[in-house]
Amino acid sequence: MDRTARLANVAWETMFRAQATLAREFEREGDWGDLLPREYGVLYALSTAADGLRIIDLCEDALLTQAGVSRLVSRLEGRGLVERSADPADGRAFRLRLTAEGQEVQRRVGRAHARQVTTAMTRALTPAQLKTLQELSAVLLAEAEAASGPISPYSERRTS
Q1: To the nearest whole number, what is the mean pLDDT of the chain?
Q2: pTM here?
Q3: Counting beta carbons within 10 angstroms of the beta carbon of residue 79, is it exposed (0 to 12), middle (13 to 18) or buried (19 or more)?
Q4: Is 139 a residue whose pLDDT tops 70?
């Protein structure tokens, strides 16, 4: 393996381990209320989509199967956090939106999660390093999407 290939693989492994370690920390120590982190992920995704999202759009973001997302959405719907409405562009489909209670829960949990992310990211990185990390991550995402298509239909809007 040449030096560039080795460096690329070591960099990937380090980035992957950092992300996975932080995700475990967030899950373990986060203030999720009575939500699971992946349920919050669905609420967040819906909060960024004024017209709601089709379930297939949520599958892209949640990295779950359609059956997994469907069960998760059904639980959130049963708790009054999500509602379904007809999709005006496709009579066979429906769009998912946050209810007023879902919006309130997403904002409350989102504020707590944003504080936790800020603490985790700033305990080791300076503002300049954070900016560099954001820029490098954006380049990696853009190139991955150019090679294989969009990872998520709204990935460019996601910030936390």
Answers
A1: 88
A2: 0.79
A3: middle
A4: yes
